[in-house]
UniProtKB/TrEMBL annotation:
Name this protein carries in UniProt: NAD(P)/FAD-dependent oxidoreductase
One MF annotation (Gene Ontology) recorded for this entry: oxidoreductase activity, acting on the CH-CH group of donors, NAD or NADP as acceptor
Pfam families reported for this sequence: Lycopene_cycl
Domain of life per record: Archaea
Coiled coil feature spans: none
Amino acid sequence: MNKFDVIVVGAGPVGSTFARYIANEGFKVVMLERKREVGVPLQCAGLLGKKIKDINILPDEYILNEVYGAYLHSPSDIILKVGRKDPEAYVIDRVGYDKFLVEQAVDAGAELLLNHRVKGLDVKTGEVCVGNNSDKIFQGEVIVGADGHASRVSDEFNPKSKSVMAAQYLLDMKKDVFDIDNVNLNVNSNISPGFLWMIPISKSMARIGLFANKDYNGLNEVLKDFINHDTCYKNASILKKYQGFIPVYNSKKKIVKDRAILLGDAASQVKPTTGGGLIIGFECAKMAANTVSRALQMEDIKILNEYEYEYKKRFKNELKVQIEVQKIFESLTNEDLDKMFLKLKEGNAEALISEYGDMDTQSTLIKEMIKNRLLFSILPKLLTRRIGSLWK
Ligand SMILES: Cc1cc2nc3c(=O)[nH]c(=O)nc-3n(C[C@H](O)[C@H](O)[C@H](O)COP(=O)(O)OP(=O)(O)OC[C@H]3O[C@@H](n4cnc5c(N)ncnc54)[C@H](O)[C@@H]3O)c2cc1C
């Protein structure tokens, strides 16, 4: 039997970041990854708030573009322009970055086993089986489920995880047409609470995608319709098509059970409003590594429960606010959305969003909108009260 202090199931960006931290502490760690090659296929828009640089290593060579702001489009194209004079976010080469993070973990001493799909585990004994005939058995003091939206580790102590589908195209315009300083985000009741993004990676190339409660064909229809109806994309060639899943945030999900913990998409650690999971996942990887390290040093597996406590203390309120924002968006018709954009424009919200808006934390902006009564002017009283009550 292969014995380890920690077994990390999944060598995605969050699992490998955790593995690096724990290997740096001198523990014996293995990453079991079902794929033959890390990071492929791409399943990400690759947009990361500038905060990433404080949270994880991001070498400049993986940054394809820096963006300063966004154009937010209503269904009938009322546009809000928000942004700052310094870069707010990076557009990254996600495939390269995933590989880099795994290399960093291996350099720190973690073992990587590709083509190792975990089929079964025992959260009490720490046994993990790999392969069709459970032919390989690993044993860990701790098992970390960083195995993505349909986590096998989570299945062991949670109901089946729920996800929504996302689709994305890589577009080539063959000439310089894009404003590379800004992303474009479109809302429409047809795809709420999801949205459609256009993220420039150069003046001639962009990632266009969306997530919504639709199947792959439904998502493709919306994307094709969008490209065909906007004259700007008349000569666009679709170089690549991608698809992926975004976990639905579940506040009731157990993320610690006996010797197992969940991390990243496996723990539904994603921002409900945007589906972004990297920054929150990386923050949780650090939190989890501290707790796991203490549990191993003290030889007391019960310490693992502190990870769930810390995670909730840090993120529960922010995620609750985002869930409320998401529910409100879901309830609005296209007419409501247009009216809302109009009122926001009239109420000088562009300046307020530019000052207080943050890709990763929306509660600060919502608080400001309540304070200066902007939220009251755009939403029915009942909804405003529901959001306001989150701070009481
Ligand atoms: C279209 C799309 C666009 C996105 N855009 C953004 C964005 O712009 N910004 C952002 O922050 N986030 C974005 N996200 C979300 C982001 O990609 C995820 O939050 C992130 O990948 C989570 O990392 P992870 O390591 O937790 O999981 P994953 O990246 O899913 O990695 C899990 C790993 O586990 C492996 N695995 C799964 N099951 C097993 C098993 N049984 N045994 C062994 N290995 C297994 C998988 O092969 C995979 O390598 C987007 C997602 C999608 C789908």
